[in-house]
């Protein structure tokens, strides 16, 4: 309905991707599917260059979700096979497992047939904007009793009640401080401080748009009961239960009626965390958590070269969003800021207490927010020429600040390491033996 004839792209890519899963061996299906789906996504986005009919933005969003689901389930199948092989080797140890111990990523073999994979790929919950959820979550929805006993209405109302505020703030910010204004001569004639702080308003508007969109998408899942699990499973976004999953599968109808539930499995945004966390490293963890989980599961954990894991994860995140320069400027700049941030975090914030910790925390929060706003300007402007216009208007100052922060941090770290051990111990807070 939203794609017209362009609907052929997600349909064909999903069918071919699922076929690759079923035809390739379980040992290689995840690799084959990954390269096919991202290859198709790349061609799809170059449709104008290849003189193919242009597709709508809605189709692009659907195709992005299809890629996550098809590639994700291929990695689930392969991961469950590897986990079963490891379990078979260790079955003779007969060790008693602590009931509170975290489950392995895969507790049982996952081997859906072609039709089940097709149903999972096109399940309407989360199809337009997410959230991403595993095939296991989709399968549990139909075979476990949780969705029948959770209070879907109450959770949905609780999820939706803040959306009017997000939408109102988005409309206000985007009308008072429009994006295109940064490309005008009037903006360039403004005071430098005004130009420097303008991305704060742009990023604020962007955040409200994302908050409202992902919260509405989450409400689709909560209204259907998809992603509901008992709280004792210590559920994680994207993943589902992390503790005692096999016991949850054996829960009786009577126990399911009495259980307390949550929808953390399909929670995309930790809005309070996005607004308040001190470091960029923590901010990345609470932003679009479901997609972050997919990147961690599919790329970060499985990439074979350890020093390049983060770079691989960020690169895949960039190409999943698109091939515009703005995505590289925004997403791929994160590690360079994080390197400097980590130094100051360890030197000054980590062991600080009381008012000192609050003051240092505020400074780090301000710098983190300013860095994200500066990067978000590139994300929103997209093309290199537009990004260059704005960054030139502020003399590309933030990259110079990053470099200065990093160099000064290295010097301070070296000074700290060269201090006598006794001097360092004197500055550590005393900890009660209790």
UniProtKB/TrEMBL annotation:
<dbReference type="GO" id="GO:0016020">
    <property type="term" value="C:membrane"/>
</dbReference>
<feature type="transmembrane region" description="Helical">
    <location>
        <begin position="62"/>
        <end position="84"/>
    </location>
</feature>
<dbReference type="GO" id="GO:0030258">
    <property type="term" value="P:lipid modification"/>
</dbReference>
<dbReference type="GO" id="GO:0006661">
    <property type="term" value="P:phosphatidylinositol biosynthetic process"/>
</dbReference>
<keyword id="KW-0808">Transferase</keyword>
<feature type="transmembrane region" description="Helical">
    <location>
        <begin position="397"/>
        <end position="415"/>
    </location>
</feature>
<dbReference type="InterPro" id="IPR004299">
    <property type="entry name" value="MBOAT_fam"/>
</dbReference>
<dbReference type="Pfam" id="PF03062">
    <property type="entry name" value="MBOAT"/>
</dbReference>
<comment type="pathway">
    <text>Phospholipid metabolism.</text>
</comment>
<keyword id="KW-1133">Transmembrane helix</keyword>
<feature type="transmembrane region" description="Helical">
    <location>
        <begin position="6"/>
        <end position="24"/>
    </location>
</feature>
<feature type="transmembrane region" description="Helical">
    <location>
        <begin position="31"/>
        <end position="50"/>
    </location>
</feature>
<comment type="similarity">
    <text>Belongs to the membrane-bound acyltransferase family.</text>
</comment>
<dbReference type="InterPro" id="IPR049941">
    <property type="entry name" value="LPLAT_7/PORCN-like"/>
</dbReference>
<dbReference type="GO" id="GO:0044233">
    <property type="term" value="C:mitochondria-associated endoplasmic reticulum membrane contact site"/>
</dbReference>
<keyword id="KW-0812">Transmembrane</keyword>
<keyword id="KW-0472">Membrane</keyword>
<keyword id="KW-0012">Acyltransferase</keyword>
<protein>
    <recommendedName>
        <fullName>Lysophospholipid acyltransferase 7</fullName>
    </recommendedName>
</protein>
<comment type="pathway">
    <text>Lipid metabolism; phospholipid metabolism.</text>
</comment>
<dbReference type="GO" id="GO:0071617">
    <property type="term" value="F:lysophospholipid acyltransferase activity"/>
</dbReference>
């Amino acid at each position: 309905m939203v794609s017209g004839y362009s609907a052929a792209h997600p349909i064909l890519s999903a069918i071919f991707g699922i076929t690759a899963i079923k035809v390739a061996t379980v040992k290689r299906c995840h690799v084959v599917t990954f390269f096919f789906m991202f290859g198709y996504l790349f061609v799809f986005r170059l449709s104008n260059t290849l003189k193919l009919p242009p597709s709508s933005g809605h189709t692009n969003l659907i195709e992005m979700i299809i890629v996550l689901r098809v590639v994700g389930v291929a990695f689930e199948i392969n991961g469950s096979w590897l986990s079963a092989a490891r379990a078979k080797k260790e079955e003779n140890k007969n060790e008693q497992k602590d009931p509170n111990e975290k489950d392995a990523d895969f507790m049982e073999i996952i081997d859906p047939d072609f039709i089940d994979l097709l149903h999972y790929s096109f399940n309407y919950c989360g199809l337009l904007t997410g959230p991403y959820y595993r095939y296991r979550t989709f399968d549990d929805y139909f075979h476990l009793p949780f969705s029948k006993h959770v209070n879907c209405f109450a959770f949905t109302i609780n999820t939706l009640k803040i959306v009017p505020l997000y939408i109102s703030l988005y409309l206000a910010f985007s009308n008072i401080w429009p994006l295109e204004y940064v490309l005008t001569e009037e903006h360039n004639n403004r005071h430098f401080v005004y130009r420097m702080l303008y991305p704060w308003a742009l990023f604020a508007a962007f955040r409200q748009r994302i908050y409202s969109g992902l919260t509405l998408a989450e409400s689709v899942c909560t209204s259907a009961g998809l992603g509901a699990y008992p709280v004792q499973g210590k559920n994680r976004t994207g993943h589902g239960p992390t503790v005692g999953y096999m016991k949850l599968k054996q829960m009786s109808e009577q126990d399911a009626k009495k259980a307390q539930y949550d929808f953390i499995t399909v929670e995309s945004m930790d809005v309070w965390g996005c607004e308040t966390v001190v470091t960029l490293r923590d901010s990345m963890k609470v932003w679009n958590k479901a997609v972050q989980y997919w990147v961690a599961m599919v790329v970060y954990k499985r990439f074979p070269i350890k020093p390049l894991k983060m770079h691989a994860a960020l690169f895949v995140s960039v190409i999943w969003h698109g091939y515009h320069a703005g995505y590289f400027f925004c997403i791929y700049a994160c590690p360079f800021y994080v390197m400097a941030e980590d130094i100051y975090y360890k030197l000054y914030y980590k062991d600080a207490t009381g008012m000192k910790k609050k003051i240092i925390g505020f400074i780090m929060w301000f710098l983190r927010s300013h860095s994200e706003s500066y990067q978000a300007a590139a994300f929103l402007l997209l093309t290199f020429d537009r990004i260059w216009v704005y960054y030139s208007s502020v003399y590309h100052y933030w990259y110079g600040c990053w470099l200065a922060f990093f160099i000064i941090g290295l010097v301070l770290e070296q000074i700290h390491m060269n201090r006598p051990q006794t001097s360092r111990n004197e500055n550590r807070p005393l900890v009660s033996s209790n």
